[in-house]
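Worked Example 4.2. Consider the chain below.
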Amino acid sequence: MSKVQLSPHFTLAELIESPTARSLAILKQYTPPEIIVSSLKKLVINVLEPLRIRMGLPIWVNSGYRSPELNAKIAGASRTSQHMDGEAADIRLTDIADNKRLFDCILESNLPFDQLIWEYGKDFPTWIHISFNSDGRQRRQVLEAYTKPNGQKAYRNWVKR
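Applying the procedure from the previous section yields the following structure tokens:
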């Protein structure tokens, strides 16, 4: 399974890898259903691979596909998360300070994304959530995740920095 290439720069293994799953001992040593692999491939071919080429830098996937079991264990994760359908990835560059450049690159591109989310951080996002609807309908919705005073995760329309 680790040798399954979804594109020249992305493997199936890295799109189903999860540090959270490892830390919680939720084993993900399996090949997800074909419908999930198909969705992941669409995400990679339409968004991640073109972005990797455009940036000319490695793009790291923090979280791609999440099983419903794993998604339920992640604080603040939506019960309808596109991660569970293989349609979303949380990504970053090697140097976290460069994540703003990655975010801006996506915004300025014509990449067909569904959602782009600046995940926390004032001057640069800690990571970037990007999704691609397998059905082809892309909203190009741009949001910012933040923490409410009560500690809950919330979203608002992103404002250019």
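Residues 34-55 form the longest helix (22 residues). Residues 120 and 126 are 6 Å apart (CA to CA). Compare this with Example 4.1 before moving on.
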